[in-house]
UniProtKB/TrEMBL annotation:
Residues 14-204 form the Glutaminase A central domain. InterPro entries: Glutaminase_GtaA (IPR052743), GtaA_central (IPR032514), Nicotinate_pribotase-like_C (IPR036068). This is Glutaminase A central domain-containing protein. Coiled coil: none annotated. The lineage of its organism: Eukaryota, Fungi, Dikarya, Basidiomycota, Agaricomycotina. Pathway: Cofactor biosynthesis; NAD(+) biosynthesis. GO terms for biological process: NAD+ biosynthetic process. It comes from Rhizoctonia solani.
């Protein structure tokens, strides 16, 4: 029950919590809990004396997921009680990274539609609570949604992120920011040169064993925007 329904709290994503305030029954948070519960089944299965607990966890996870799909409208809501449909269900990435394939394809189908329809000039906002987009969460979500549908891994999916790396609205920055306004491209204060931009390699992490090396593609642009575009080119080198 604590996984499916949680009390009012601030999400770990600081820029959402500070702007929107605490909320109960957030769709992403609930799914993280259910995925964690399902992963316990894999941990307990090899342990003979834990087999009964494993069965309980599996039943609870499956039952919880069925309720979650209904309450969140296939994960399209920020909270169960929200009517807005604009947010990234980045918790899907944990399911794919762990190899559980716990969340059904029907949820992924709805999320592909939602991500595409929510895309602004420079990215897809993390939630419907504000206009902030993050590099890492966009890549987490895209990686999960392309794991079972490689056709989604195309230029149009990355168009907004590519627009951002090319535009470089804040020319004084020397490193890619991880959080910015999806419409204006203006960086959030203090969000440059942080380790979370490593999330751009989320797609490659799901292809472990398939990708041996990553060859960056050079750019002829001499300005700072060209330097920022290298991050997009790393991803494109895998795509092609």
């Amino acid at each position: 029950d604590n996984a499916l329904f949680h009390s009012t709290q601030v999400t770990g994503d600081w820029f959402v919590g500070d702007t929107a305030g605490p909320a109960a029954n957030m769709t992403n948070v609930a799914l993280k809990g259910l995925i964690a519960l399902r992963s316990m089944v894999e941990i307990q299965n090899p342990l003979i004396d834990r087999s009964s607990e494993s069965s309980k966890c599996l039943n609870a996870a499956n039952s919880g997921l069925e309720q979650w799909i209904r309450l969140s409208d296939y994960g399209t809501k920020f909270t169960y009680q929200s009517n807005a449909k604009n947010h990234l269900l980045h918790a899907l990435y944990a399911d794919k990274l762990l190899g559980l394939n716990f969340v059904p394809e029907s949820v992924h189908e709805r999320q592909r539609i939602q991500l595409t329809s929510s895309m602004k000039r420079y990215g897809v906002p993390l939630t419907d609570q504000n206009n902030f987009a993050t590099i890492a969460h966009q890549y987490f979500t895209i990686a999960a949604l392309t794991a079972s549908n490689s056709s989604f891994l195309g230029n149009s999916t990355f168009r907004a992120i590519k627009n951002y790396t090319e535009a470089l609205i804040n020319p004084n920055l020397t490193a890619l920011v991880d959080t910015y306004d999806a419409t204006t491209g203006v960086a959030a204060a203090g969000s440059a040169a942080r380790g979370s931009v490593g999330g751009v390699f989320a797609i490659l992490a799901l292809r472990k064993g398939e990708v041996k090396t990553i060859q960056p593609i050079g750019t002829s642009s001499a300005n700072s925007a060209g330097k920022m575009d290298e991050l997009w080119l790393y991803t494109r080198s895998y795509m092609h």
